[in-house]
Amino acid sequence: MWKALGKVALAAIVFFVLNLIVSIPIGIVAGIMDAMRNGANVTPESITELLQSNPWLRTASYTLSASTGVVTAVVLYFAMERDRSWTLGWKQDGWLPKGVLGLAFGALLIVLAFMIVWMAGGIRIVDVVFSNEVFTALLFDVFLFAAVAVGEEVFSRGYVYGVVKRSGGIAAAVVVSSLLFALLHANNPAVLSSAFPMLNLLLAGVMLALLREWSGGLWVPIGVHLTWNFVQGDVLGMAVSGVETPSILQVESANDFVSGGAFGLEGSFAVTLVTVGVSVWLALALRKRDAAAEGHGSFST
Q1: What are 235-288's pLDDT values in tens digits?
Q2: In whole angstroms, what is the distance from residue 145 CA to residue 222 CA?
Q3: Which residues contact 290 (CB under 8 A, 6 or more apart)?
Q4: Distance between CA atoms of 6 and 165, rounded to whole angstroms?
Q5: What is the pLDDT, as a whole number, of residue 6?
Q6: According to the model, what pLDDT value does residue 199 have?
Q7: Can you list the positions of beta strands (E) in the chain?
């Protein structure tokens, strides 16, 4: 188990170093564009604002960052797992219907959380917007959130989950991969605004890890991750882990404790309820499946 944790630590270091490396060219380009726009009044804040407001820079930044998760997982898997006794989970029979199932389930879950917050008086819907800006954002953000979903799932639920499960079992794999998943978002805006953001990131990691185990691969969690983020931000108008996006629904917080405030739905109690509920259901389903397999094995012998 300690060897597996050492591999996880190495994976985290490689991931963060690669993220730092790919951020340099994006930062340089953004700085040049900001200087062309503002002259000598270039600040880290103005560069960050440009990175978030320019769809090309924003998509390139998040996509390059997400790609480091895939690169880290693939390189370490082929370099260190020479016996190939486990897989990353992307080669999966029936990957397309499982991916579609994940897309539908992710959208359903985040809409459910949104409805809970709305009915509890946490948000007000103030407008519905169909504009060129929103339409453009939807096109860019489908690609952006797909890249984020693939990158984070291959890294967290592919490599980290697999390497820990091999020596420590399912429970250890769920815990370690979920903790690291939460830490990956520790620098997000408003993540420390209350206890809920980090708690819900951890619980979302648990839910996605159990979905990986339940489905036998990565395509269900990738689908869930994609629509969870996309629908939350570009459709429902909530911040996605603290990051704002143009959206169809325009909402305002009526109660930050209920709505999640600047962090979005993942900072609310509603996501806690949803992720705990789904995780309990998945854990029971896995236990039932294991019990049935053991019973079948005993009967067969």
Answers
A1: 999 999 989 888 999 999 999 999 999 999 999 999 999 999 999 999 999 999
A2: 10
A3: none
A4: 14
A5: 94
A6: 97
A7: 123-128, 249-253
| pTM of the predicted model as reported, rounded to 2 decimal places | 0.92
Burial call 63-101: b when 16+ CB within 10 Å, e when fewer? bbbbbbbbbbbbebbeeebeeeeeebbbebeebeebbeb
* Residues counted in the chain: 301
Q: Indicate if the pLDDT at residue 298 is higher than 60.
A: no
Buried-exposed string 112-137: b where 16+ CB fall within 10 A, e elsewhere: bbbebbbebebbeeeeeeeeeebeeb
Residue pair 141/230 in contact by the 8 Å Cβ criterion: yes
Sign of CA dihedral 25, 29, 35, 38: negative
- Structure-token match 């370690």, residue found: 176
End-to-end CA distance of the chain: 32
Structure tokens at 92: 């999966």
- How far is Cα 34 from Cα 215, in angstroms, rounded to an integer? 45
Q: Could you read off the pLDDT of 229-239 as tens digits, one per residue? A: 999 999 999 99
